[in-house]
Design brief:
Length: 472
């Protein structure tokens, strides 16, 4: 009897991201988390007194807060006693790539960041381990009054210090969850963006976060304020090489969108498979404003990621477009949350997930319509594709509606590659391997095309699913 050819899909090729350089940090704190370590980080950061006190308060909240039970994937492999919370690389922040040390500069050159800046970005920030190592913004952008800098420099600048104090961890308070408190205690690096009223940036700003050290955590804080009638597209990229010990990412993103303003926030997260990605992202939107999330989650061993939109103004809206790929050894718990707090608000969620080789992908979504949100509209669509019988995909929706005047819809589809579709393509002269690859690429296409042009090549690299035949 003739043996049938087995077909499988290769994992994402992470060779582009798994390179590493010898650690040449000039300073790092001890492993673990104590008041002395938090004070040490605060001293190295030259924090104002209110920030030092805030860090210690967050540590107290962290120590008193229990882990949530039965929520998502297990994080038993993460031991905070073995995590280094602050590592300073061998450089200060530079405004020219030529001044960045070669090992760090070469890292970002391989990731294509300088090239992207030259071609299509209005400004770039690059973080390496716990510090911003490069930051620059085009002159014509700065002349419009746009502020784009690392958040620590802004905190030292009297023009912006008060603004940061008024907004810092107000959307994501340390009491929100245990890892929000951890972030507040040891945060380091990140970006501050302020777009003045009426200013429309035609080209994006971008920050890229690279974690090079093993056994370390990265805790950057991103704070963006888009004023009334303004527009911004902000791009965030993340990667790390693979180690045989746990690494941690517990960043925080706080976005403030003014009246009739629009913010598009695009993210590609391609952490290595030893990473615990416990990131928190939240936006608040004023009257007539719009927040657009575009999210690609491809890396990490475990992810907890649920960007949240709080629609506080009449007619405000939220859109979330996401794609997740979970391969062997990955348990990615992702989704979104929308809170409708005002009349005539609207939200739209469109997600795709792909799982293979025992990977687990969970889509967790919440839509909350409060009593004053009359006329609210929400549509949620999530589709999952499992490429083998070992993999798993779950959809966990939560919908709470406290008004009789709302239009809410939810649709979920979970399935495998259709044999009929494969047969049809093969009948047109296409091989079985290529037929299945075409179906997978087509499945992800309407989400991936939402990503910015300069990320198109990276996106294609990440989701290129090569069909390979083997006889057996």
């Amino acid at each position: 009897m003739e043996k049938k050819e087995k077909v499988y899909v290769d994992d994402i090729d992470r060779s582009l991201y798994d390179f590493r350089y010898e650690e040449k940090d000039v300073y790092k704190v001890e492993n673990g988390l104590t008041p002395d370590i938090v004070n040490e980080i605060s001293e190295k950061k030259h924090d104002p007194e209110w920030m030092r006190e805030f860090r210690l308060h967050c540590l107290e909240v962290y120590n008193n807060r229990k882990m949530a039970d039965n929520w998502g994937p297990s994080i038993e492999g993460l031991d905070m006693d073995n995590i280094i919370t602050y590592i300073r690389p061998n450089t200060d922040m530079k405004n020219s790539w030529n001044e960045v040390p070669d090992d760090i500069k070469n890292t970002f050159e391989k990731l294509g960041i300088p090239d992207a800046e030259r071609k299509s970005l209005a400004g770039v920030g690059a973080q390496y381990d716990s510090e911003i190592v490069y930051h620059n913004v085009r002159k014509e952008v700065a002349e419009q009054g746009v502020v784009y800098t690392d958040i620590e420099s802004a905190l030292q600048d009297e023009r912006y210090a008060g603004m940061i104090k008024d907004h810092f961890m107000k959307l994501v308070p340390p009491t929100d969850h245990k890892f929000a408190a951890l972030h507040g205690a040891v945060w380091s690096g990140g970006s501050f963006v302020f777009v003045p009223e009426g200013v429309h940036l035609d080209i994006p700003l971008q920050s890229y976060f690279r974690l090079n050290a093993k056994g370390a955590g990265q805790f950057e804080h991103t704070l963006i304020i888009v004023s009334d009638n303004a527009y911004l597209h902000f791009i965030e990229g993340c990667s790390a090489p693979k180690y045989n010990v746990a690494n941690l990412h517990a960043g925080c993103v706080e976005l403030y969108v003014g009246k009739n303003a629009k913010l598009r926030y695009s993210t590609i997260e391609n952490w290595s498979k030893n990473m615990y990605n416990l990131n928190t992202k939240r936006a608040v939107v004023s009257e007539g404003g719009t927040i657009e999330w575009v999210s690609g989650s491809f890396g990490s061993h475990v992810s907890y990621l649920y960007p949240t939109s709080i629609l506080n103004g009449r007619g405000s809206r939220s859109e979330f477009t996401g794609i997740t790929f979970a391969g062997k050894g990955q348990n990615l718990d992702t989704g979104s949350k929308v809170i409708h707090n005002a009349p005539d608000t609207s939200s739209y969620v469109n997600t795709k997930s792909i799982s293979k080789s025992g990977g687990i992908s969970t889509f967790r979504n919440a839509v909350i319509v409060n009593s004053n949100a009359v006329g609210a509209k929400s549509s949620v669509s999530c589709e999952s594709l499992m490429l083998d019988s070992e993999s798993r995909s779950d959809t966990i929706p939560a919908i709470v509606v406290n008004t009789n005047d709302a239009d809410i819809g939810h649709e979920a589809k979970i399935g495998r590659i259709s044999d009929e579709a494969v047969f049809y393509l093969m009948s047109r002269g296409i091989s079985e391997e290529e037929a299945k690859a075409m179906i997978v690429r087509g499945f992800a296409d309407n989400v991936s095309k939402e990503l910015p042009l300069e990320y198109a090549v990276e996106m294609n690299n990440l989701i290129r699913l090569e069909m390979v035949g083997s006889i057996g």
